[in-house]
Write a structure and sequence with these properties.
364 residues; alpha/beta; Aspartate Aminotransferase, domain 2; Aspartate Aminotransferase, domain 1; 2 domains; 7-stranded mixed beta sheet; 3-stranded antiparallel beta sheet; 13 strands; 37% helix; 14% strand; binds pyridoxal-5'-phosphate
């Protein structure tokens, strides 16, 4: 049994082969089709496909105007990429505390970390559960702070009936190999503001706006760049894979949710184990099935001996030397010391999930 699953839809083989055969490999019609499908099938607003979740986050911060002298607030409970993109902009990462029952940035933690220099906030939907986005967006609006959700774990999640990817000024997604929808590596940025989207599309390809850069008679586009652009676009054979993998996303999300609900019932009454909170106004994409346990290393070893993998997935990132922590974040410290995740992906069979239930219920 694997902890994560890489899903390659059967339709993907033919789709990628046809793209290779066409020899149109770079960004083209398939990227456009993938973007249209992300909007239609996953509810992303004005999605721009890029070549990783990290570049999606970085480009969103660039378009938000984050630069040297600015501060960007983020939780420490995330993957290192969320913090690195702030440093890539020359800005200062400011780590804020989380809700220990979910692992998500709390509105109170966010508010407490705001200074006159705060330019942006990166709420991370830990494991796929949406953060308290109405509260976070309201605080951000009061202070003129740009909100860029890190939805690397959360495609297909909903919050108060709305899709993640439609809630905030920017939302960044990852299509890396073990994410719900993979393009091998890839990502997307959704923008609620039309002008931001235009900037994202322009700056993902060197900053050259193809529509207003005609080919000259000498055979090169005519342009005069006024700012830095990036080589962040997705290519067509990755998009062909992503498009095929989007097809059965609703069924795969439903399977993940069914497994999570099986686990919720099976683990409701186990001493030394606390399930994460399940707010009724949002639906997780269940990239992770997380909980907090006592004597975590004993738990991991006992499950491993019973053939069940478990993982912290990511430990707090502020303790890395590049960020200068660990900082004083009491809820983060508690979560970091006790959180653990079980397999929850669509490739698990009924026998697998029963084995997981039995392995946990047997104790540690
Ligand atoms: C929370 C979070 N943010 C950002 C990223 C970066 O995504 P990518 O690997 O596609 O660059 C990841 C990657 O796993 C992640 O878990």
């Amino acid at each position: 049994m694997d902890f994560f699953n890489t899903h390659v839809a059967s339709e993907a083989f033919e789709a990628v082969r046809a793209t290779l055969e066409s020899t149109r490999l770079s960004e083209g019609v398939r990227v456009k089709a993938f973007e249209a499908a992300l909007a239609e099938q996953a509810g992303l607003v004005r999605p721009a496909a890029v070549n990783s979740g990290t570049t999606a986050l970085h480009l969103a911060l660039v378009v938000a105007g984050v630069g040297p002298g600015d501060e960007v607030i983020l939780p420490a409970q995330t993957f290192i990429a969320t913090g690195l993109v702030v440093l890539m902009c020359g800005a200062k990462p400011v780590f804020a505390d989380i809700d220990p029952t979910t692992g998500n940035l709390s509105p109170a933690g966010f508010a407490a970390a705001i200074t006159a220099r705060t330019k942006a906030v990166l709420p991370v939907h830990w494991g796929g559960l949406p953060c308290d986005m109405d509260e976070i967006n309201a605080i951000a609006a009061q202070h003129g702070i740009a909100v860029c959700e890190d939805a690397a774990h959360a495609i297909g999640a909903t919050y108060r009936g709305r899709s993640v990817g439609s809630l905030s000024r920017f939302t960044a997604f990852s299509f890396q190999a073990i994410k719900h929808v993979t393009t091998g590596d890839g990502g997307a940025i959704a923008c609620t503001d039309q002008r931001d989207a235009q900037e994202v599309f322009r700056r993902r390809w060197f900053g050259i706006d193809r529509a207003s850069s005609p080919m000259s008679e000498l055979g090169e586009r005519e342009y005069d760049l006024a700012d830095v652009g990036y080589k962040y676009h997705l290519n067509d054979y990755c998009a062909a894979l992503g498009l095929a993998n989007l097809g059965d996303l609703p069924q795969r999300l439903a399977r993940r949710r069914a497994i999570a609900s099986e686990f919720d019932s099976a683990f409701a009454d186990i001493p030394g184990l606390r399930l994460h909170a399940r707010p009724h106004d949002r639906v997780s994409a269940y990239w992770l099935y997380g909980m907090r346990v006592e004597r975590r290393l004993d738990f991991v070893r006992a499950l491993r001996d019973r053939g069940v993998p478990s993982s912290v997935c990511h430990l707090r990132i502020d303790a890395n030397a590049v960020f200068g922590g660990p900082f004083d974040l009491p809820h983060t410290a508690e979560f970091d010391a006790t959180q653990i995740n079980l397999p929850v992906h669509e490739a698990l069979t009924a026998a697998d999930t029963q084995r997981i239930v039995d392995a946990v219920r047997a104790g540690w």
